[in-house]
Amino acid sequence: MIAAATLAALATVCAVGAWRLTSARWPWRAPRAAILLWQSLGVTWGLASTGALLAYALEPFGRGVVHGLAYIGLHLREPHDFLRIGALMAGLALFSVLSMVLLAAGAQTLSARRRHRLLLALIARDEPRVPGVRVVDHPGAAAYCLPGLRSQVVVSAGTLRLLSPDELTAVLAHETAHVRERHDLVLLPFAALRWVLPWCKTVHDAHASVALLIEMAADDRARRQCSPKRLATALLRFGTAAAFATPHGALGATTGENVMARVNRLVKPRAELPAHVRFAIVAGSVILTASAPMLWLLPN
């Protein structure tokens, strides 16, 4: 019972931590560390929630979760208590649902990107002014990237007319940051969780918070190569232009509902969190992520 109670408490701590983190503002001062913390909370919550049910169900065998599952699988045994049988079925079902939803969301995203790449091969062109970037002849403003093994950065002809050279450089640096840091993989689990729990406000807020943090992380990387004010003015120009939506499976510089928060952060930056605080957040995230698998392995 100790393992089950510990895992249940861990799942509760992760849920409360996610709820508090959605309204916090310190993550804006250290977006990469905050993204790692969000990932840790999500993974640990999933493993702890399913682990609590399985640990309770398998407690009579005294072998823990992993070895208990292997034991009942090899010996074709199951708990004789109806409550524990229900917990076993609920734990396995929850684990299966979370895994399948993540795989389905990943497959859907990959399929959307593949279709969009085929479309770009037909309608996009190269532009000498922006080497390595695909240009779509559309009057609206758009700039986005398609991450993956064959990543592409795409802008519209309307964007080339709308932005100055310095602003365009800033936007392209932002999109390149998305590609290099694979922010699509960061956002995917939260999008999958939002899909399976659309009624949960905390899940909705968590997805929005992580989406904003990856944009801020890309902004931080972009301003190493360009003026942050040029990126801010580019974001404002997109806001006043006839911009069209970023395709499914892509990441865009102007996506999200908090563009003004990013603009203010670029124009009036606050001091980054001290290095020792960021290290503590990263170390705590690693320890938190390792805690649930360790409890799965430990015998009751």
From TrEMBL:
Keyword rRNA-binding: no
CDD domains referenced in this protein's UniProt entry, alphabetically: M56_BlaR1_MecR1_like
Cofactors, names only: Zn(2+)
One of the GO biological process terms: proteolysis
Taxonomic superkingdom: Bacteria
UniProt entry keywords in alphabetical sequence: Hydrolase, Membrane, Metal-binding, Metalloprotease, Protease, Transmembrane, Transmembrane helix, Zinc
Transmembrane region(s): 85-107, 275-298
InterPro entries: Beta-lactam_resp_regulator, Peptidase_M48
Cofactor note: Binds 1 zinc ion per subunit.
Molecular-function annotations in GO: metal ion binding; metalloendopeptidase activity
Record domain Peptidase M48: where: 116-187
PANTHER family hit by this protein: POSSIBLE SENSOR-TRANSDUCER PROTEIN BLAR, SLR0241 PROTEIN
Similarity remark: Belongs to the peptidase M48 family.
Protein name as annotated: Integral membrane protein
Organism: Acrocarpospora pleiomorpha
